[in-house]
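Structure (tokenized):
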């Protein structure tokens, strides 16, 4: 059986540039991929964000697991 864990959050548009930097939030989240690959049952991690010129940016982090 496959299990999906989803985390949904928002980033203020004013902080998007900082979150997108090489040492920012998105890089840090993606860096967890390597760590998770060593955890039993881990299948994949997906990081998706909306593209907004104004307002908040919606971010979805989804991990997939198998038992």
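Design, position by position:
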């Amino acid at each position: 059986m496959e299990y999906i864990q989803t985390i949904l959050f928002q980033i203020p548009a004013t902080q998007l540039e900082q979150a997108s930097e090489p040492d920012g939030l998105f890089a840090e989240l993606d860096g967890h991929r390597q760590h998770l690959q060593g955890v039993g049952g881990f299948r994949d991690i997906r990081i998706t964000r909306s593209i907004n010129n104004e307002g908040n940016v919606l971010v979805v982090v989804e991990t997939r697991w198998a038992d």
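Reviewer-requested clarification: The chain has two helices and three strands. Residues 2-66 form a domain with the Ribosomal Protein S8; Chain: A, domain 1 fold (CATH 3.30.1370).
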